[in-house]
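U., I forgot to send this yesterday:
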Amino acid sequence: MFSGSGEGLLVLVVEYWSSSTPSGPCRTGTRAWYGSKSGSQPIVFELEGFDVPPGQGPLLFFLALFVYMVVLLGNGVVICVIMTDRSLHRPMFVMICHLVVCDLLGATAVLPSLMMHFLMGQKKISYLPAIAQGFCVHTYGAAIQTILAVMAYDRYVAVCEPLRYHSIMTSARLHSCCAVAWIVALLLIAVLFSFHMNVPLCGSFLQHVYCSNRIIMNLACTPTPMSDIYGHSGKHQDTGMFIIIAFSYIRILAAVLKHGRTDSSIRTKAFQTCASHLVVYVLYEIATLIIVISYRFPSITKNITKFLSILFIIVPPAINPIIYGLVSKDLCSSIIKRFSTRTVHKNRLSVLQ
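Result:
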């Protein structure tokens, strides 16, 4: 928002507006705007949030706080153990670290603001934080799929080309694949949010629990066909990632069926290396599918629909560390070793004192 001379100018305008449609009466109201030549943006949005019964806010706050602490603790333990244990500096665990960062990004984008909503009834959010929250949520959704696609490729090479695995998945290629996964996700979402530039918004009420691209663009005063087309084309990205993951695991399944009859170790290796990845992917897809299904049933109360809409940000980040620890024997043993070593060390110190 800049003036004609190029200097940034923030102008608070209270605009009395009226609009009419051929099929309806005129509507009048008052809105506060950031005014400029190129467009206008409301100073503060108001999220619809949850309909919290009187006296239930503190309870819901502590539930959200508990979930967030579980996310931070579980993912923090996983990433710290992988970083400090040199035996885990392998492609699969490096990619798990990237998934952990992705989970933390999604949970941190939504849960802290949700806690403030429950505790203090805070529903207002200014324009830039709203865009930042929406950007982080969308990046989480895109990055988790690109990273899982890279993991599927890595597992395909590990099972189907075991003798060439280390020559194919070198350290440089591993980090390049992870970097490409993040860059692709960030570029896709950056283009999506670039359509917000110079789009005047006629309203400030967001009918959701958190900010997202579609919810904000629903307030646009003018049609946004390019944003709509690009947003719908995002489904092709989901399909592309699904094809990569499905192709990798079909080839892995074929290799297991072909060689697993004579060598049972192939089946064991395939299960150990692929199980956690598959469970994480299926869990995320189920969480997103629940959102789609919930909107097909208008009879469901708004609070339940809103709760279901945030499951994909809450459930995978909270459960994924448990999946990594239970399925991966190396990671599980390393975590147990770390905690048992600390316990023994503390006992020795207490004896010496």
